[in-house]
Amino acid sequence: MYLPAHFQEDRVEVLHQLIGNHPLGTLVTHSADGLSADHIPFIVDPRPAPLGTLRGHIARANPLWQKAGADVMVVFQGPDAYISPSWYPSKKEHGKVVPTWNYVGVHAHGPLRAIDDIEWMRDFLTTLTQHFEAPMRAPWKVSDAPADFIETLMRTVVGIEIPLTRLQGKWKTSQNRSRADREGVVAGLLQTGDANASNAAAMSGLVAP
Q1: Of 12, 96, 139, 192, which has the fewest beta carbons less than 10 angstroms from its beta carbon?
Q2: Would you say residue 177 has pLDDT above 90?
Q3: What is the reported pTM?
Q4: Is 1 helix (H, G, I), strand (E, B) or coil?
Q5: Domain count, the chain
Q6: CA-based max dimension of the chain
Q7: Which helix (DSSP H) or strand (DSSP E) does residue 119 occupy?
């Protein structure tokens, strides 16, 4: 992706955090038929260092797992928002401002691995469930469903892993503007009352936690 230096984010822990907060990734592959994209929730494991591993699962009927060995890219999208030039104090000074869009995202690259193993799948689905059910008041557990039902279900899915070879982060949060304009953007976003805009404002680093 186009990545000016002032928008570049290299810290692995920050990139992993965005993946953890926005786990639905778009997995992009290429074949003789052209580009293909699948939307898959992932868990990121920091091991092995330095970049870690993505893990997920797909339906056995999805031919994606048959592309094991191929280099793939997974795109994770964080908060985004329209930015009005009316929020820039510099508009009153010279008027040389235009609208833009702020956003954060991560591109994760690596070879696709397919894992067709019942025990691996059982452990992974347990981990996956515990991870996403943790905030619930009454967390659902795999053992809550009939054992024979889960056994049958596990045979209809295949695990995937992507040991990461490259991570790119783009934090386009008005870093190319003056401090005053950046503060104006944050104030404008917060005044919209929109949750996604507020989240985009928080990514600026100018909002107190």
Answers
A1: 96
A2: yes
A3: 0.93
A4: coil
A5: 1
A6: 70
A7: helix 118-133
